[in-house]
Amino acid sequence: MVYLTLLTCKDQVPQREFIYGSRDLDLDGALEFVNRLVAEGWSILYVNLQDQDGHCMSLPVAAFDGKPIQSQMAMLQAQWEDILKQPR
Question: What is the pTM of this model?
């Protein structure tokens, strides 16, 4: 479970800060959520990610271009899993 704290704005709408999270939200889903906002025309001014243990980190706003990333994340996961399976 992760939580996002975002500051957003869109066109003439004033800046909005909100927290988004749920039991079912994982890292991939959180990143997809931010990308969907960007795809819908929202400008992200900052985004912080907090995990279930309370660890918090700022995410680079420039990394969110509005394009889906789940397939790239799955590919990266497959790569590191293959590396971990290799004998030492």
Answer: 0.77
